[in-house]
Amino acid sequence: MIGAGVKLERAIEDGGCTYSHGRLTLEIQQPVMMSDRAVFQQAFEASSAKGSAKHVAGIGDRAHIKKRNSGYSIMFMKGNGMGGISVYGEGSDSTVMADKLVDAAKKVASRY
User: Fold this and answer.
1) How many helices (H) and strands (E) does the chain have?
2) pTM: predicted TM-score of the whole model, two decimal places
3) By C-alpha distance, which of 108, 69, 110, 60 is closest to 88?
4) Of 7, 15, 52, 97, most Cβ neighbours within 10 A?
5) How far apart (Å, rounded) are the C-alpha atoms in residues 40 and 34?
6) Shortest CA distance to 39 belongs to which of 83, 82, 85, 86?
7) How far apart are CA 54 and CA 97, in angstroms?
8) Calpha distance 109→31 (Å, rounded)
9) Residue 34 to residue 79: CA distance in whole angstroms
10) β-bridge mates for residue 28, sequence order
């Protein structure tokens, strides 16, 4: 998603990771699982209500994308889990990068 020559900066076993390529960074959040889905729904709705979150179809059960100061973030729910993926840094503000992030989020959510 962020090009050839990507460097793994940080990885958590069974969880999140951070990749970089030059001044561009891709973060995959560590998945959070909980037996009480209502808690996640409240957190998801609160996050959706803030700023300019837009619904994205085809990622988990529910997902939204937000434009950040630099780049984009996607938060999604699937089953009893919630996760996210973000891209930021130089070159991350384009709609092309947002589309690439949506494709990457679909792959991440499919592993939940």
Assistant:
1) 2, 8
2) 0.81
3) 69
4) 97
5) 8
6) 82
7) 16
8) 10
9) 9
10) 17, 85
